[in-house]
């Protein structure tokens, strides 16, 4: 073909090499990519790989997601009804659920037979950067034409970008399974180029659903980046004439600007249509007045900005100067692009390379949206003449784009990280071998090191055994029905999530909800408050236990390692008597 020399120059491959040699090079690159990702993530979580089914990672959200994975498994096994309402949490009223991270939860189902609920979750935790690197590697090759080894360094930079590292440390499973974003972009790339548009639109629809039901916050931003990509591609002189690596997708030769816009409009329509399904699913949470089991992030704060800010700070975005909290169970937001990747992108994007417009669209969209509706710097809003400096997001929201419903603008930085990886791969592919992959690997590994250094206070992650496992399993075997009263009722998100992790093993309903609970805003606690008051006021442990049994409880659980509630423990011991002890767990059988 006439464009083969161009393809060889861009991708750094030798078209005279035999096809088996190219396949072997790709296979070797994939093996190295996955092995490096797994080993590095194992080091960050050591010794978790040796105790997958024993340890939980101490973090803000991991434990609650184990419960979510277990609940999805139980629905597939017919043990729970297919409904958004569950009585397994928020007892006695139950709670309205809108579960996320569906794709990794489905992948965990076949692993449960030999790893159990905790082990299968932990294995996916360790594997998630490798899956992200593999998906990014595939996208980089298809879009930029870069060779297998040239694409490996940028793929690692994306897989271990600072945003993903912080999300993994926090236990935010929907965010650190960030391989769904490059899969969506790869499907969009196919739909824009293929001679079989129906097949391309079908792939795009499936990828949209996978992204939206796994990470709805990321899915909210991708139409903006996709629109920018289509508009930039439609500029005069642009075409889709160069086929992807391996020519698996038949190229459309020299599409005019109008045809690019028409094809792009159809792709955007497919994306929007299949985003409506999860959109209706997620926005219905709590619409019926029920207790909400999972809630979206907070809206934009007024006045002082918290360290877990919902928007990116300009100094953190560009220089990585944001606050990092060493407490392993607190949420730390990191919206840092990475200086090595950003400098390479700004330097080499001045000259054309394959995939440049997608890279530019992703970087601009991610960076601008992550800053939110008004500019902030050093956790203070930037004022000019006493007024906030408005940003494009503010006007998008005024036009009706629902960015404010998700609240957490900083999450859009993932799009920018993907764009920077694309820029590195595309720019590197312009070099001759071996400089192409040497340059890509050097910048990629420096970026990975930079991300780990920036988030260094978050690593290594502390590990803990599940408290009172023998007692929890014995509760599951107990034939007498009844719920579990996890105390205290008013508790932090972390305390409630430990209760839900215990519920995975005792298999009974719990009063816990994976949010910070208080009497004045949690309906099920308001229902239980007079019951608990009667129990604590009783001087007779037998009578107190009868009150709880009449309310539908079989067990009461107290976790003394929650030291901030230590004063409550004395009241509990006086009311219920001496508890049974299983490791760090205290419990009473009613």
Number of domains: 2
**Could you report the average pLDDT, rounded to the nearest whole number?**
86
Question: Describe the biggest sheet?
Answer: 4 strands, mixed
Number of helices: 24
Helix content: 55-70%
Shape: globular
Cα radius of gyration in angstroms: 26 Å
Report how far apart the termini are: 79 Å
Strand order of the largest sheet: 9-10-12-11
As a percent range, the share of strand residues is: 5-15%
Structural class: alpha+beta
What is the tally of beta strands? 12
Are there runs of 5+ residues with pLDDT below 50, and where? 1-18, 237-254
What would you say this structure looks like, in words?
This protein folds into two domains: 4-458, no CATH class; 470-589, no CATH class. A hairpin with a 2-residue loop joins strand 4 and strand 5. It has a four-stranded mixed beta sheet with strand order 9-10-12-11, with helices on both faces. Strands 1-8 form a two-stranded antiparallel ribbon. The longest helix has 33 residues, at 112-144. The chain contains 24 helices and twelve strands. The chain is α+β, with helices and mostly antiparallel strands. Helix 22 packs antiparallel against helix 23.
Give me a quick take on this structure:
The chain is an alpha+beta fold and 590 residues long.
